[in-house]
Amino acid sequence: MASISFRNVTRRFGNTIAVNNVSFDIADNEFFCFFGPPLSGKSTILKMILGLEMPDSGEILIGGKPVNALSPAERNVAMVFQNLALFPHMTAEQNVRFPLVERKVPEDKIRARVAAVSEKLHIGHLLHKPPAQLSGGERQRVAIARALVRDPAAYLMDDPISALDARLREETRVELKRIQRELGHTLVYVTHDQEEAMSIADRMAIMENGHIRQTGKPSEIYDHPESQYVARLLGSPAINLLALNNGSAGAGTIDLGGLAVPAGASGIGIRPEDLKAEPWTSGKAGTPAKVFEVEPLGGYTVVTLTAGEEKLRALMRGHPDIRVDTDVALSCDPRRIHFFKPDGLALAPVQSGQ
Ligand SMILES: Nc1ncnc2c1ncn2[C@@H]1O[C@H](COP(=O)(O)OP(=O)(O)OP(=O)(O)O)[C@@H](O)[C@H]1O
C-alpha cells in the first residue's frame, strides 16, 4: 500500500477550473474521503490519481514517487467504478474472481488471491452459494471482496454505494470501514453524502469549486469548521447561522449570556444539538422563542423555533415535552458557539483565561 500526495495540482477544462491549486497528503493505509457538492472536482482528483486525467500543473506522488509521467497501469492504483452489487447468475466465488479473470491473471494466482481475500473477509464458507442464498450483510462482504481482490498500491472508490437503499448503505459502509482497517489498504473515497463521509473516513477533505476548503478528521472539522461553508455542509439538521447585530451587546436574537464576541465577528453558528429550548417561565434566563414545528424522529426530536425574524432548529434527545406554538427559552453553552467574519471564515473565540 502507498501514500498519495498532490502538490499544487491544477486541472482545467476550457474555462472551468475543475481542480484549483490543490495540495494534500493521504497517508499509507488511510481511509481518506473527498466530500463536496456536485461538480466540486472530486471525480477529477480521483481520475488524476489514477492517471486518466493529467494535471495542467503541479505534481502527483504515489508512495513518495512522482507519477505524472506514468501510465495508469504503471501507477498500480485500482478504481472501483461499479457499485457494490453482485452478479446474480454467478456464485460468490465467481463474483470475487471476476476482476482477475477479466484481467487474464493466471489461474494459480487467482486461486491464491481469492483464498487470501476470502479468509480475511471471513467468506470462505459462502463461496459456493449464489447471491440469492446470502443475507444482505453477507452479500455486501462478498461484493467488497470482489472490489478488493486485486492487490494494488491504493483503491479509489467514486460514490460506490449510492445506488443501494438506505439500510443496505448503512450496513455496507460499516463493513467497508471494518474491512479497510483489517486489510490496511489505502482507500480514497468520494461521496456527496455528508453522513457517509463523516462516518467512514479517517480523514476527509471538503471541496468547493475545485478548492479544498478544509482537511482533517471528521470530528475535528465538525467541531472546528474553518468557514461557514464547511460548517453548513456537515451536520443534519444543518448548523443555525445568525447575523450578529451589535457586537458584544447581543447576537441578533440569541442572548449570548455576556460572552465576549471576538473583534470582527459578523455572524455566529450554533449546532442544533447545542441549542437548548425549555418551557418559558418568567424570570428564567434565555432568549424567548416560539415553537414552530416538532418532528419526532424516534430517538431524537427536531424542534423548529422562531425567535424574532430568525428560524432556528434544535435537536433534542427522546421525546421532549414541547408543544407547537408554545413559548420557550433558548440557551446555549457559550463555548459551543462558532464565530464568523463577513468573508465567511471562522474566528477563534476570545480566550477568557478561565
Ligand atoms: N471531461 C471533462 N470535460 C469538461 N469538463 C469537465 C470534464 N470533467 C469534469 N469537468 C468539469 O469539471 C468540474 C468538476 O467536475 P467533477 O466531475 O470533478 O466534480 P465532482 O465533484 O466529482 O462532481 P459529481 O459529484 O457530480 O461527480 C465540473 O465543472 C465539470 O463540469
TrEMBL record:
Pfam family, one: TOBE_2
Domain ABC transporter: 4-234
Organism, as annotated: Rhizobium setariae
Localization per Swiss-Prot or TrEMBL: Cell inner membrane
Family: Belongs to the ABC transporter superfamily.
Molecular-function annotations in GO: ABC-type transporter activity; ATP binding; ATP hydrolysis activity
Membrane topology, as annotated: Peripheral membrane protein
One cellular component (GO) term of this entry: ATP-binding cassette (ABC) transporter complex, substrate-binding subunit-containing
Source species, domain of life: Bacteria
Classification via InterPro entries: AAA+_ATPase, ABC_transporter-like_ATP-bd, ABC_transporter-like_CS, ABC_transpr_MalK/UgpC-like, Mo/tungstate-bd_C_term_dom, NA-bd_OB-fold, P-loop_NTPase, Transp-assoc_OB_typ2
First and last residue of the signal peptide: none
Record keywords: ATP-binding, Cell inner membrane, Cell membrane, Membrane, Nucleotide-binding, Transport
Protein name: ABC transporter ATP-binding protein
